[in-house]
Amino acid sequence: MILVWMIGILLAGGFLCWLLARWNTQLSKWAALLSLAAGLLIVGSVAWQYGDTVRSQATWLIDYRINWIPAFGISFHVAIDGLSLVLLLLTFFLGLLAVLCSWNEIRERTGFYFFNLLWTLAGISGVFMAMDLFLFYFFWEVMLVPMYFLIAIWGDSNRRYAAYKFFIFTQAGGLLMLLAILALYFVNATQSGVYTFDYFDLLNVSLAPETARWIMAGFLIAFAVKLPVVPFHNWLPDAHSEAPTAGSLILAGLLLKTGAYGIIRFVLTLFPQAAADIAWWAMLFGAVGIVYGAMLAYAQTDLKRLIAYTSVSHMGFVLLGVFAFREIALQGVIMQLLTHGIGTGALFAMAGMLKERLHTRDIEKMGGLWSAMPAMGGMALLFTMASLGLPMLGSFIAEFLILLGTFPVQPALTSIATLGLIFAALYSLRMMQKVFLGPVKGASPPKDLTPRELIIMATLGISMVLLGLFPQPILDMVKMTVHQ
Amino acid sequence: MNGLQFEALLPYTLLAAASLVVILLIAFRLSHTVIQITGFILMCAVMVALLQASALLPVAIYPIFQIDGFALLFTGLLVLCVMVVGLFSFIYFEEREENPKEYYILLFLGTLGAAVLSISSHFISLFIGLELLSVSLYALIAYLRNRNNAVEAGIKYLVLAAISSAFLLFGMAMIYMETGSMEFATIAKKLQTSNGHSILFITGTGMMVVAIGFKLALAPFHLWAADVYEGAPTPVTAFIATASKIGVFAVLLRFFQTIGLSNYPMVITVFLVLAVASMIIGNLLALRQQNLKRLLAYSSIAHFGYLLVAFLPGNAAGVQVAVFYLLSYSITLLIAFGVITLLSSREQDTGDLALFRGLFWKKPVTAAVLTLALLSLAGIPLTGGFLAKFFVLATGAQQQLWFPVTVLVITSVIGLYYYLRVISTLFGEAVPTPVKKTLHPFFYLTTYTSLIVMVVLLCWLGTFPNDVIEYINRQLLIR
Known about the structure:
The complex is a heterodimer of chains A (484) and B (479).
Chain A: H1 2-20, H2 25-49, H3 53-56, E1 62-69, E2 74-80, H4 82-101, H5 110-129, H6 133-142, H7 144-154, H8 159-192, H9 199-202, H10 209-226, H11 235-242, H12 245-270, H13 272-277, H14 279-299, H15 303-322, H16 327-358, H17 369-372, H18 374-387, H19 394-406, H20 411-436, H21 451-469, H22 472-483
Helix pairs in contact in A: 1-2, 1-5, 2-4, 2-5, 4-5, 4-12, 4-16, 4-22, 5-6, 5-7, 5-12, 6-8, 7-8, 8-10, 8-11, 10-12, 11-12, 11-15, 12-15, 12-16, 14-15, 14-20, 15-16, 15-19, 15-20, 16-18, 16-19, 16-21, 16-22, 18-20, 18-21, 19-21
Chain B: H1 3-28, H2 32-53, E1 59-61, E2 65-67, H3 69-96, H4 101-119, H5 123-141, H6 148-179, H7 184-193, H8 199-216, H9 225-231, H10 234-259, H11 265-286, H12 292-311, H13 316-343, H14 359-362, H15 364-378, H16 384-398, H17 402-426, H18 441-463, H19 466-477
Antiparallel strand pairs in B: 1-2
Helix pairs in contact in B: 1-2, 1-4, 2-3, 3-4, 3-10, 3-13, 3-18, 3-19, 4-5, 4-10, 5-6, 5-10, 6-8, 6-9, 8-11, 9-10, 9-12, 10-12, 10-13, 11-12, 11-17, 12-13, 12-16, 12-17, 13-15, 13-16, 13-18, 13-19, 15-17, 15-18, 16-18
């Protein structure tokens, strides 16, 4: 029931924000902040309460199920294990920061903005806990529509185009997944005689290799679009660069993670054999993504597009690690999900802050900002280093574990992937140099971080360092899930 | 006719009486408000009579009518649609200061025609129902006769509908020649004994399919749809899009099921082609439309293509899904046309997308309502349209109809683009618009209330469809 509360608090909070904004926009911001803080408290308490259980037993921590549409065997079934819990923590944590990020940025239609923000987060949390495939699809769509509005209404100059592209790409993938879910549903029904969308029942279905391949393809395309895997990444740079700051933060920090989560939770467990058959190809796409994303990132002059392409590169590591089928690589993948969420989220927040001050995203028009804003420069340096995988920071642990896990399986592909780290150094340092070092451009020096912004960046920075120094608690949390 | 039959037929008698009452009212007390309110009460009475009759079913009035749970569902849906259309009509016609009274006679006659279609089990009643519907529609479409495109739309519909009626009659004649009967059940029996693959029967069915395809605006018989939707007064457009199509679809379903047409691969192929063509053509042509009414016309072509996918298997699950689909589709379209009615000015109907720009910031409630309707048409969760589309996909997947199902998925992605285009227009930058002349606030209140109620219903269908599904199942078992 506590899981329902997590979603409910966001849905209700969203409505509240919308209503309150009629009287007072300030009140609606506080409502958004408080509902996310309450949500974070709930997730935190759950993590605290089940801290020991999750380490020792492989059982699902919380399981809640009621009938929804019994005529079609659809139930409202939510459950969490260590993996879901970690991702839920990330969701509420980044959600809270996203609200803080948009505190001054959004001046128009504030109420509706926070409504959409909270509903997207509700959809994402739902995705991370749904254990009924129909419900999963349902939440998959619920996170999509408000995100579309966030981009289309509060985005930058080219927002319409970006929003269409985002919606249509994801929806196309989503509908194919729906077909695959239906196919699985009917295969299960003919075998067992029970019409159900329940994940745990569908785990037992035995598929002919040919059928399994087709059904898996449906799932995989949806997740590959979301992740994104290279040929399907086209929507990402547009959506990320046009979205408002909080939108980019949620897109990069959370939405991409739903794709990875889907692969780990559904593709690997429902179709183990078919997934193993395509492992080489998937890892190849992962390695290609790493190098290709990094190269394109190097060529960008738009700061947000640059960061967007680094996401493509980092998500390549996820794909590579998942299909290695090794415990250690999978642990790395989960670390990567967290650190990428935090690191890239921070970079997007920073890009938003720069845009607020300079009214441009073009890095050619920036330069020498360190002298005017040393605090932001320092923070930027930290996250740039994280992005290129400096030891002591979380991303290093993640990428190291992934490479360690994949090397025995596919040495050649892993070597290519390692090249990505060098490219990462190139694009990260180039960005740092262009923006913060070099001769000063522009007439008036911009203001340094305000206390609110400092809180956001410092929180992200501290968690990044903590993940780099003490990754063990997180690894413990997901140990049993990964083990299976 | 015995008492039981009389009671079962009472809703239909009341519907017929409704138009007579309106005629008498025009003769004695010529007030739009009175006619409007009386009409509404009469429709409520029809609903009550339907609920009363539901305990007695099934009742056959041999040989022409078959009143069963199936008919009850469709008639109920029809009457609900007409109630809402009637509400919208008031503010629409009151504002135009043309004589709107005869309008209600035609509206109720058209409804009677559609309702007769849903209970007919004989070619005669089929034809009478269809003609009642069509003839009322000729006049309704061209009702605002001072407008050029209204007259054009009326003539277009008249010519094409007359041709399609001719096709229908010819098809019926052929089937009659082959089987010697005009009653569905007897035809089915004759066909069973004479292994029914005769050319005459197939050709006759083909002819009838042409006529039905025209009425449902299935591609390639869709050419009238966009012009008629645009030219007709908006409440009439809503009537064509919902009530008239529901009635025709009901009789199609009954004919199809009684005869067992799903056993003829030829017929299935024909419907498969119609479904796929409608999905593709409807969605592609809607892409570039600049007028919301035309856009909805093409979108409804596509939606009947989707509906045919559920209809193809010809089994009970298909019928159940079709009823659910029609329910959510009618609510959605009524909402959309209701919003257009509310926004229309005296001179013209608000169809042009440019007029909707920035509506959300001027009239948030109206725009939110329209947005939900469009999301429902696009099949996005939390709305009835999503579950309806999902059930259709499920029926198709169950019968392994992978080809139409895949087309459905691809075309809905294409369709998403134009729905999003309208939505993003609603949320665009606002432009100033002239202030409208206001009517008595009571009627705005009722219109708004009905819109809100329908939106709530739509979301309820999209989240808790279980009661409705069970009700539909229970009713369909009464036969």
